[in-house]
Design a protein that fits this description.
The structure is a homodimer. Chain A has one domain: HIT family, subunit A. The longest helix of chain A has 21 residues. Chain A is globular and about 40 Å long. Chain A has a five-stranded antiparallel β-sheet with strand order 1-2-3-5-4, covered by helices on one side. Chain A is of the alpha+beta class. Chain A has three helices and five strands. Chains A and B meet through helix 2 and strand 4 of A and helix 2 and strand 4 of B. Strand 4 of chain A pairs antiparallel with strand 4 of chain B, so a sheet runs across the interface.
Chain lengths: 149, 149
């Protein structure tokens, strides 16, 4: 991932989201919507518009971190499904949505983009970020995510 | 991927879609919507509900095939963005949407789920599937997708 980490700048729409932690390749942030456990993985890459423009090796590291973060979220929160999406039509910087969903949630079974939103409030948002950070850090210690590429 | 390929059955909502090709891990099918170059990658796994339930190795192979198929689609069709999503709320079997998007398309910049749809018609659908199959098969020959896990 040598050439990929030199210049990394978040678009404002991503920079304003609450920081959770840094994985080896991705910056992890929280969506400000208390209706859903919803995080973003943002590769610390210069000018990555979408996953087809990453090297295959960087794509593989991204997938390791998607699985890692998705499992941490799924461990923390009741859910029936985990949605994973890379869209980037409105915010043209590669970022991965990872979202716990369940039957009866406000947008179920539809998608959450342009769906219901209730901001956390400052304290609850910091608490959510802290709780998710701990779960991700616990998951990170497992050897399966740390294989060489 | 040994234990994962023994029993593979498609849910009806996926089985009815037009077959394009088989990659090493995924079955590839076409969404019947001529408004978008839109394919599905469906891991040939038993009971895979979402990516967090795959082994990390299977997740990595899935990502190789997402990048491969996404690049084939992006090579074929004009686009400004490539959307990649694993949702599965309505069809609870792991399948990856890979979709070419561009400014001015019928749902831009929104998402395509529950968006505009115009079926191909039989001849055009077969033509689209054939064209995508050739592009994927050309992309498959590149060594970067064939590394050992």
């Amino acid at each position: 991932m040598g050439e990929c980490v030199v210049v990394f700048e978040l678009l404002p729409a991503l920079a304003e989201k609450t920081f959770i932690t840094d994985l080896r390749f991705c910056n992890v942030r929280l969506e400000d919507n208390r209706l859903y456990p919803w995080i973003f993985l943002i590769p610390r890459c210069e000018n990555a518009l979408n996953v087809t423009l990453l090297s295959v090796d960087d794509g593989l590291q991204l997938m390791r971190e998607i699985v890692l973060a998705g499992r941490a979220l799924a461990w923390l929160f009741p859910h029936g499904q985990v949605n994973v999406a890379m869209i980037g039509n409105k915010t043209p910087q590669l970022h991965v949505h990872v979202i716990c969903r369940r039957e009866g949630d406000p947008d179920w079974p539809g998608v959450v983009w342009d769906g219901h939103c209730e901001p956390y409030g400052e304290t609850a948002r910091a608490e959510a970020a802290g709780k998710i950070r701990l779960a991700i850090e616990a998951e990170m210690t497992k050897p399966e995510y740390n294989q060489n590429q």
